[in-house]
Amino acid sequence: MTTLLRVDASVRLNGSVSRALADSAEAAWKAEHPDGVVVRRDLGRHPLPATAWPALARAKYGEEPATAAERDLLADSEALVAELADEVKSADALLLAVPMYNYGIAQHVKVWVDLLVFDDELLGASNPLQGRPAIITIARGGGYQAGTPKHGWDHATPYLERIFGDMFGMNLRIAAAELTLAPVTPGMEELVDLSKESESGAHATAEEHGLAVAKELTGKAV
Predict the structure, then answer these.
(1) What is the C-alpha separation between 97 and 187, in angstroms, rounded?
(2) C-alpha–C-alpha distance, residues 89 and 4, integer Å
(3) What SS3 state is found at 19?
(4) How far is 9 from 160, CA to CA, in rounded Å?
(5) Cα dist. 125→66, 86, 112, 119, 130 in Å?
(6) Residue 98 and residue 41 in contact, taking contact as beta carbons nearer than 8 Å
(7) Cα distances (angstroms) measured from residue 136 to each of 65, 90, 193
(8) Helix, strand, or coil here: 119?
(9) In a designed cystine with 182, which of 40, 65, 191, 194 is the match (CB 3.0 to 4.6 A)?
(10) In the structure, how many helices (H) and strands (E) does the chain have?
(11) What is the CA radius of gyration of the chain?
């Protein structure tokens, strides 16, 4: 039985493009793995505590907890790292649905990543994530392609590529929709058709990725 870990990061449930793209990828994956298990973590609706990383960082660099409350926080933070890392390492594939906020990743996604990298095994030579498949579905409110005024302003996608591709060694596939704010933003009316085209193409790509990952896990030809 295969396991897909789905991590959502949008603060919205209704109207979230990144969640909708992930739904397309998940549906394609489940069509190939009807008995597969989907484990869910919703960072957007249930953020991780921002106090965990500072407690771990202080301890790592030799600052001992000074109070009972600080000792409890450190113990809880260490347990949280173990939980998160085990969740990622136990999955056969990862599906990460991430909107771009303020040209980068959201604070609650950064907290999750910062806690994961406290797990020594994930950064070690025997990293269990090496070569495992991961799908990233990302929604970008504006246009960031070459030739657009904000080309190069997308700092979310490169960050995710560095962490999950370069650091964790996962086999990444990305489905991205752009101009997602056009239908609801005054002044972007002329971009609505391009927005719909981008989103439609991203759904098709997400489905392709979901199927490709499913077949990869079963050893079938894609």
Answers:
(1) 27
(2) 11
(3) helix
(4) 13
(5) 34, 17, 22, 13, 9
(6) no
(7) 37, 18, 24
(8) coil
(9) 191
(10) 6, 5
(11) 19
The sheet with strand 171-177 has its strands ordered as 37-42, 3-8, 93-99, 133-139, 171-177
Evaluate whether 108 touches 114 at the Cβ level (below 8 Å).
no
Name residue 150's amino acid: K
89-121 pLDDT, tens digit each: 999 999 999 999 999 999 999 999 999 999 999
As given in the structure block, the two tokens for residue 17 are 């493009």
Is 169:129 a contact under the CB 8 Å cutoff? yes
Q: Which of 141, 102, 183, 185 is nearest to 18 (CA)?
A: 141
Q: For 139-151, what is each residue's pLDDT tens digit? A: 999 999 888 889 9
Reading the block at residue 139, the tokens are 């929604």
Query: Which among 152, 215, 212, 203 has a CA at the least distance from the CA of 177?
Result: 203
In 9-82, the DSSP E strands lie at 37-42
* Rounded Cα–Cα distance for residues 29 and 211 (Å): 5
